[in-house]
TrEMBL record, chain A:
Residues 1-36, 113-135, 361-439, 452-485, 844-869 are annotated as: Disordered. Residues 844-858 have a biased composition (Basic and acidic residues). Residues 375-386 have a biased composition (Basic residues). It catalyses: L-lysyl(27)-[histone H3] + 3 S-adenosyl-L-methionine = N(6),N(6),N(6)-trimethyl-L-lysyl(27)-[histone H3] + 3 S-adenosyl-L-homocysteine + 3 H(+). This is [Histone H3]-lysine(27) N-trimethyltransferase. Residues 720-835 form the SET domain. Keywords: Methyltransferase, S-adenosyl-L-methionine, Transcription, Transcription regulation, Transferase. Residues 16-26 have a biased composition (Low complexity). Residues 1-15 have a biased composition (Pro residues). Residues 389-407 have a biased composition (Polar residues).
Automatic annotation (TrEMBL), chain B:
Belongs to the WD repeat ESC family. It comes from Stylosanthes scabra. Gene3D superfamilies: YVTN repeat-like/Quinoprotein amine dehydrogenase. The keyword Transcription regulation applies. It comes from the Eukaryota. It holds the Pfam family WD40. SMART domains: WD40. This is Polycomb group protein fie2.
Length: 869, 375
């Protein structure tokens, strides 16, 4: 368009056309106009053309407007910059020390000379080179004077440049390549470093994925034309076809878009009336979901192998593998019988029971207890010692069953009571009662103990905590208070039990139910642990307890006597679980005893060790088999062992079962793990375990038998300090800080995990630069340390190296460890044999003659050069 | 690859018919050497030196000139790197915190040379980049901050006063090939834009890292001990071009960038705040530049961004009015002897002088003669 032509007049509709036209849009697809006469193609194209012109004109105007706005802003910006520039001048002029500013001096000289150029033309030579200490001054140049000869340049002392490298990010563990880093299918342009300008496009044109086919979003203007055309002419095939042609899209696409637009319009109108609704709703959306939905992002983002979110190695959205064998239930060893908090079922049950047992004495007790906190402490202390004895004596299972016996009676009452009386709704006698209550409870315990001479264990431990807490502060008081209130309230609510039960059940949201189920998988029927760990802030221990047992009762069908079945269920469940876990433990041990190095599971591994040493290792992916792995097992098919991350039970024949070395410290091929190029795994091996800390945590830091496993260095990151420096051979080099012995682990070669296809593509690029950081890892992945890695990526190749690299399976992942091949002294440079595939080795890495020089010289090889372990 | 523009998002393309708004004549031509010159730049940082410019090139020289009346150019200073392999690709004016005029240059060696032109001495040399340096720019709001774009795929922020490498813009979201150009946002002190051989333009923010920038001014320990930070993710990643992007400059909040497609493109990055890294590019205008299909040709603007000058492969210069819509070609500068590719131009403060430096080692001076009667 002509540069000077005035912009086209603004279109009839203002830019806010969308909103203004929205209400008039025929929402009904079979509008009146469409039915009357079907417009001809010419009509349609005329309408569309005019609309197109209008849109184009609008665009020009809008660009102009934005340019203008930007210009206005920029004026302020440049003025500010100009001011800064002036200030710099002013600042330096006022500064007296700047008298020796040579640039200013030269500038002035030049101007002076220029002004007096004719006068000093002849003897310019002597004038323009005053012999001051600062060398030459300005020289005036007309045309065609070689600058080189005009002034004597000031020398900048040489600075040794760094060996070339690409900026890289340190990685302490391998990462899988993210999609956007792929070079596969992307056009790559090279330039010939020596040839200067020539751009050489990549040789993989055929691989270019046509981006053109990508679905284009409808832009605003297209929507506008679509709306307006339909509004003008109605919706008909002619219109759709013309529009499709105009937008170069499918007719169906246009139609679909129109439908969404009409829907949007409807929605927009609807929302005008009630747009405040949405906000309040979104508030509690999390709690409204069920557990599955709530865990969705967890399942997607949490790596069950590395136990971290957003794992860069195994990625998001991994296949979920659920173990066929459940873990033995988790038990808190010490707090077994202590109430977990104010609303612990133990407190509630107990207080309920006591309230019945001592209801007659209640009044008296209330009178008496004014301020006996000291005596209470004493008594609780006494009991504690007593209890610890009894506790240690009696087994867990016994405890539980005892408690269930004793709780039989009052269970029902307490159950109903706590329902009716959440602490806050009871304003009756709040202030004083709390303290008195705790005292009273303590006394009741005493009374109770006397009554039931033998059944001491449970109530004892209960009272410990009771004493503990009350001696602390107010925290424990609310429950006691409530229990007292409960006792009072008892009669009123008894008849309402059933009703409340059902409503109570309803008040459990799907999410909470889901969490409870998970909790029972983890902790068994331990409501304390479930409430604390999974339903914190949502449900109290007591509520959990009730729910579990109510559920149980319902299932068993004998819900008639709620209390009985409740407690029975509780004890039964717990015992059952316990028994099972013990059983499992025993079974496990038996199998381990049977275990031999020649057992069937090792056959395949052995075979691999002996026969397929030169084959690449195979990538392990956990299988989800729910029974012992058969022929269908992906691990078996893939030729890998099953690992601890597989779903299959431990009895799976394909499992790698670790070693049971002790004295050998797993340092030789005697150790099955070592022989299979695996690190020992404390989860799997029998005698390989990790101790941590200095013993202050109560765990022995060293067992003292000197048998600790020496085959877990990668896992534990027990690496040597490696230094980066200028290589004695070429480019960068890796150096060792401290001396090490033979076979010592030095560090890991980390990098990006890329596919072989990707590696082939990248390899071509790297070969052009004649510097490759690719390392074959296994049949699926290649490590690329080009942009991400660690210092060991700079260790150079040598045919007679002092290190060697080894691919090792560590907790299901292949990793590359660099080991000392011989004794290496502090400060020595590290070399290892890259073991390039013979035909692909770059010239400098070819045997036999070890040229010693690396990377830079030598012609690029035809294939890709990848390091092998 | 022709880009398909949706209806209503077509760029406004400038016409190549010169408007003759300004008329330029060659007033001087210097031969600096036989080797190519890669950069020429006026000093906008300090208004004392608005007529002073510097050139660098393959002759490993940094030369300081002054434009005088009547087309005269005076050589003020000259520096030469003792390393025979050095070849400077870029130079930028900066200043020390006390206002001393600095020149910052870099090239094939990857060593950044900071020269105090006030005392004619090397002030510092920054070693750190792993490969050649393709562009250095100065933060006009804080003129002792410079930023460098390198072949090592990183962009680095330096404090020339203390010699500290403050930030490295590279890593997971960084460039995937040489970075060819970088520029500071003129008013948003946190923002920079970089572009390179991976065909992308990336906008980075150093807002979260600003405390490090401030710390760099008061750092007294060794510069190498400074906790240099990596900025791994840009806030915007634009695929405006389908080939090397060798020059980008901010025009207010818009970005001017060029590839090897015979045009400069002006576009608006629409950054989505909630999803960093993503965004929409709205291409507003295009400034055609014929025969400009080789890479490493950079354009330059006057102080107020009213006009941009760019040379081409054949030694011609196109002067565009940047901020008019549609764009107006102010002038097309042609001289029969100027036939060598022009690597960079420099436009003086008010646009009255345009300099070009060429592959053949020449510097051309063009003066605005619109209001000057022919001699």
């Amino acid at each position: 368009m002509a540069s000077k032509s005035p912009p086209p007049p603004p279109p009839p509709l203002p830019p806010s056309f969308a909103s203004s036209s929205r209400s008039e849009l025929p929402v009904d697809l079979s509008g009146n106009k469409a039915n009357e006469v079907s417009p001809t193609v010419r009509d349609v194209s005329m309408v569309i053309d005019s609309l197109k012109k209008q849109v184009a004109a609008e665009r020009i105007v809008s660009v102009k407007k934005r340019m203008e706005e930007n210009r206005h802003k920029l004026v302020g910006v440049t003025n500010n910059l100009g001011r800064l520039s002036m200030e710099r001048m002013a600042g330096s002029e006022t500064d007296a020390h700047r008298s020796l500013d040579l640039l200013t001096k030269r500038q002035k000289d030049a101007t002076d000379m220029h002004n007096g150029i004719h006068a000093s033309n002849d003897d310019g030579e002597s004038n323009s080179y005053p012999e001051d200490s600062h060398g030459s001054t300005a020289v005036l140049l007309g045309s065609n004077v070689a600058v080189k000869n005009a002034v004597r340049p000031i020398k900048l002392p040489e600075i040794k440049r760094l060996p070339p490298y690409t900026t890289w990010i340190f990685l302490d563990r391998n990462q899988r390549m993210t999609e956007d880093q792929s070079v596969v299918g992307r056009r790559r342009i090279y330039y010939d470093q020596n040839g200067g300008e020539a751009l050489i496009c990549s040789d993989s044109e055929e691989e270019i994925i046509d981006d053109e086919e990508e679905k284009r979003e409808f832009v605003e203007s297209e929507d506008y034309i679509l709306r307006m055309t339909v509004r003008e002419l109605g919706l008909s095939d002619t219109v759709l076809d013309s529009l499709a042609q105009c937008f170069s899209r499918n007719t169906s696409e246009i139609k679909a878009r129109y439908e969404t637009l009409s829907k949007e319009d409807n929605a927009a109108e609807g929302s005008k009336n009630g747009d405040t609704k949405d906000i309040s709703q979104s508030e509690n959306s999390f709690l409204e979901k069920d557990l599955e939905a709530a865990l969705d992002s967890f399942d997607n983002l949490f790596c069950r192998r590395c136990l971290v979110f957003d794992c860069r190695l195994h990625g998001c959205s991994q296949d979920l593998v659920f173990p066929a064998e459940k873990q033995p239930l988790w038990n808190a060893p010490d707090t077994e019988n202590a109430p977990c908090g104010p609303n612990c079922f133990r407190s509630v049950l107990k207080s309920g029971r006591f309230s019945k047992a001592t209801s007659s004495a209640q009044a008296d007790v209330e009178e008496k207890c004014s301020g006996g906190s000291s005596s209470r402490k004493k008594s609780s202390a006494k009991r504690r010692t007593k209890c610890s004895q009894s506790e240690s004596a009696s087994s867990n299972a016994k405890n539980i069953s005892e408690s269930s016996d004793s709780e039989n009676g009052p269970g029902k009452d307490a159950f109903s009571a706590s329902q009716a009386a959440p602490p806050k709704t009871k304003p009756v006698g709040r202030g004083g009662v709390g303290k008195r209550n705790s005292k009273r409870v303590a006394e009741r315990v005493l009374v109770c103990m006397q009554k039931r001479q033998k059944k001491t264990a449970v109530s004892d431990s209960d009272s410990i905590v009771e004493g503990d807490h009350s001696s602390n502060d107010m925290v424990t008081e609310p429950p006691v208070l409530s229990s007292e209130d409960n006792a009072r309230k008892e009669e009123f609510v008894e008849e309402n039990i059933c009703k409340q039960e059902s409503t109570d059940n309803k008040s459990w949201r799907a999410l909470e139910k889901g969490l409870l189920e998970k909790g029972m998988e983890i902790f068994g029927r331990n409501s304390c642990l479930i409430a604390r760990n999974l339903l914190n802030g949502l449900k109290t221990c007591w509520e959990v307890f009730q729910y579990i047992n109510w559920d149980e009762g319902k299932m068993s069908g004998s819900a008639g006597d709620g209390a009985n079945s409740l407690v029975e269920g509780y004890s039964k469940g717990n015992n059952e679980v316990r028994r099972r876990s013990r059983f499992l433990r025993r079974r496990g041990r038996v199998r381990r005893l049977k275990y031999t190095w020649k057992s069937a599971a090792y056959h395949s591994i052995r075979k691999r060790i002996t026969e397929r040493k030169d084959q690449p290792c195979r990538q392990y992916n956990p299988c989800g088999c729910q029974s012992a792995c058969g022929k269908q097992c992906p691990c078996l098919q893939n030729g890998t062992c099953c690992e601890k991350y597989c779903g299959c039970p431990k009895s799976c024949k394909n499992r790698f079962r670790g070693c049971h070395c002790a004295k050998s410290q797993c340092r030789s091929r005697q150790c099955p793990c070592f022989a299979a190029d695996r690190e020992c795994d404390p989860d799997v091996c029998r005698n390989c375990w990790v101790s941590c800390g200095d013993g202050s945590l109560g765990i022995p830091s060293q067992r003292g038998d000197n048998y600790e496993c020496r085959n877990m260095k990668l896992l534990l990151k027990q690496q040597q300090r490696v230094l980066l420096g200028r290589s004695d051979v070429s480019g960068w080099g890796a150096f060792l800080k401290n001396s090490v012995g033979k076979h010592e682990y030095l560090g890991e070669y980390t990098g990006e995990l890329i596919s072989h296809r990707e590696a082939d593509k990248r390899g071509k690029i790297y070969d052009r630069e004649n510097s490759s950081f690719l390392f074959n890892l296994n049949d699926q992945f290649v490590l690329d340390a080009y942009r991400k890695g660690d210092k060991l990526k700079f260790a150079n190749h040598a045919p007679d190296p002092n290190c060697y690299a080894k691919v090792i399976m560590v907790a299901g992942d292949h990793r590359v460890g660099i080991f000392a091949k011989e004794r290496i002294m502090a400060g020595e440079e590290l070399f290892y044999d890259y073991r390039y595939e013979p035909d692909r080795a770059p010239a400098w890495a070819r045997k036999p003659e070890a040229s010693g020089s690396k990377k830079e010289d030598g012609a690029p090889s035809s294939g890709r050069a990848k390091k092998l372990a | 690859m022709a880009k398909v523009f949706g209806l209503g998002s077509e760029p406004v393309v400038g016409s190549l018919t010169p408007s003759k708004k300004r008329d330029y004549r060659v007033t001087n031509r210097l031969q600096e050497g036989k080797r190519p010159l890669y950069a020429v730049v006026f000093n906008f940082i300090d208004s004392r030196y608005l007529s002073v410019f510097a050139t660098v090139g393959g002759n490993r020289q940094i030369t300081v000139y002054q434009c005088l009346e009547g087309g005269v150019i005076a050589v003020l200073q000259s520096y030469v790197d003792e390393d025979k392999d050095e070849s400077f690709y870029t130079v930028s004016w900066a200043s020390n915190v006390d206002g001393a005029p600095f020149l910052v240059a870099g090239g094939i060696n990857g060593v950044i040379r900071v020269i105090d032109t006030g005392s004619e001495r090397i002030y510092k040399s920054f070693v750190g980049h792993g490969d050649s340096i393709n562009e250095i720019r100065t933060q006009a709001l804080k003129s002792s901050l410079v930023i460098s774009a390198s072949k090592d795929e990183s962009v680095r922020l330096w404090n020339v006063h203390t010699g500290i490498c403050i930030l490295i813009f590279a890593g997971a979201g960084g460039h995937r090939n040489e970075v060819l150009s970088v520029d500071f946002h003129p008013s948003d002190i946190y923002k920079i834009a970089s572009c390179g051989m991976d065909n992308t333009v990336k906008i980075w923010s150093m807002k979260e890292f600003w405390s490090y920038v401030e710390k760099s001014f008061t750092w007294t320990d060794l510069p190498s001990k400074f906790p240099t930070k990596y900025v791994q993710f840009p806030i915007f990643n634009a695929s405006v071009h389908s080939n090397y992007v060798d020059c980008n400059r901010w025009l207010g909040d818009f970005i001017l960038s060029k590839s090897v497609d015979n045009e400069i493109v002006l576009w608006e990055p629409k950054v989505k705040e909630q999803t960093p890294g993503e965004g929409v590019v709205d291409i507003l205008q295009k400034y055609p530049v014929p025969e400009c299909d080789i890479w490493f040709i950079k354009f330059s603007c006057d102080f107020h961004y009213n006009q941009a000058a760019i040379g081409n492969r054949e030694g011609k210069i196109f002067v565009w009015e940047l901020q008019s819509s549609p764009p107006v070609l102010i002038a097309r500068l042609v001289h029969p002897q100027s036939k060598s590719p022009i690597r960079q131009t420099a436009v003086s403060f008010d646009g009255s002088i345009i300099l070009s430096c060429c592959e053949d080692g020449t510097i051309w001076r063009w003066d605005d003669v619109t209001n000057v009667p022919p001699a």
